[in-house]
Amino acid sequence: MPLDTTVLDALRAIFAADAVLTDPADCAPYGRDDSKREALPDAVVFPDRHEQVLALVRLCRTHRLPIYARGRGTGTTGAAVPLGGGIVVGFERMNRILAIDADNRVAIVEPGVINADLQAAVAAHGFFWPPDPASATTCTVGGNIACNAGGPRAVKYGATRDNVLAVRAVTGAGEDFRFGKATSKAATGYDLARLMVGSEGTLALVTEATLKLVPLATAKATLRATYRDIESAAAAVARIMAQPVTPCALEFMDDEALRLARLHGGETIPLAGAMLIVEVDGQPDALPAAAAALSAAARGEGLIELAAATDPREVAAIWAARKALSPSLRSIAPKKINEDVVVPVSRLPELVAGLKTIAARFGIPIVNFGHAGNGNVHVNLLYHPDDPAQAANAPTALSAVFDLVLGLEGTLSGEHGIGLAKRPFMRRALDPVAIALMQRIKQQFDPDGLLNPGKLLPD
Questions:
Q1: CA dist 227 to 34, 276, 280, 304, Å?
Q2: What is the pLDDT of residue 252?
Q3: Could you give the CA distance from residue 360 to residue 345 in angstroms, rounded to a whole number?
Q4: So what's the pLDDT on residue 1?
């Protein structure tokens, strides 16, 4: 329903004239994300400083208006979709890198900074920020914080939660707080900064973050291992992660993913039952021994070929094809259910075998790829909505996938978050006491339930 004039006047007093949208046609693009879900907000605002966010939350609390934080809408779970109307807060104008402190290996940024822009800025100082999702050229640091984004480098350097040292934020009660310091160690109470990561905008709106930077490696080696079948590749992942040399990336693609990658990357991408991309970084004189250790672990039953990708163009083509996989899946079927489940690495062989059984049982093609070194596999269920059997079977197949993952001591999401998509399964994944504790934490931070209502936590 349209906002009353009192609220509109208050919004226009807080924000510049071009920073408040109310026309439905203007607001509509900010009501959707990459989950393909959408809803129309009552208004969209674009803060350019912390004080505006604080004033907005206090205004919305007075008028009981829902608030939805938004980066660039690259999320896949519907976490930024404004169900129930209210105000979308687009952080794209809070896009300043406030400081790069090379001596302390930190960067201080606003939430609207694009991941790739941050990487370019800190690379000039000899550093990188570890989270590197496939959407890095578009997604924001605030969005990365919201869903605990990861990417290939997380296997060695950790996901977002491991690389945020401090935050400034505004709670749902309109309280301004800072937590954390630009230090790599801290033991001063509950870690509220880490609590913000993965909270999907349900506890507070982050307006500033202090990020841990890592020095860029001076050298890198890339190995490509192809296998007879996905079970052999999964077993190799377990061997690789059980030895002392940790790769900086360990990616997995099944046979159908390889076919799609070949369409994008050309004949440099082989066809096989499965493939691993194994990358190691470090000092040049240490790389041969590290690569040899990884090669030895990659060898085993079912290996077809193990080769080093020495041409930079070949390496670039392999990674470009890997990152193009998600959008290319629609060439198989127009609808996909994209999940990012995680299991203990040692149980990957059981996961891939179980997924094959589910695909056959329900007649739903399942394409698998992802960050195997973390046990984080992107499971893509593909179906034609105009096929009654597939359309009916897809939700049941998804439920079976989650049952399989939880039965293997795994979890629903590694880096995409819960949002709307996985919220119905939260009670299956967590025990009642854990959920009750989370709900009480939500109540403390957001007593009126205004921040991103209907997301993450079950009712």
A1: 32, 8, 20, 5
A2: 94
A3: 24
A4: 64
**At residue 103, what is the residue type?**
D
Q: Does this model's pTM top 0.90? A: yes
* The token pair that represents 284 in the structure block: 């040049």
**C-alpha 436: how far from chain center:** 25
Residues 333-387 have pLDDT tens digits of 888 899 999 999 999 989 989 999 999 999 999 999 999 999 999 999 999 999 9
Write out residues in the chain with pLDDT < 50, as ranges.
Answer: none
Q: How is residue 243 written in tokens?
A: 């030895």
Strands 87-90 and 67-70: parallel
Query: Cα-flanking dihedrals φ and ψ of residue 368, to 5°?
Result: -125, 135
Cβ–Cβ < 8 Å for 97, 109:
yes
In sign, the C-alpha dihedral spanning 4, 7, 11, 17 is positive
| pLDDT value, residue 143 | 98
Quote the pLDDT of residue 357: 96
The Cβ-side half-sphere exposure at 220, using a 13 Å CA radius, reads: 15
Cα–Cα distances in angstroms (integers) from residue 443 to residues 86, 157, 171, 187, in the given order: 19, 33, 11, 25
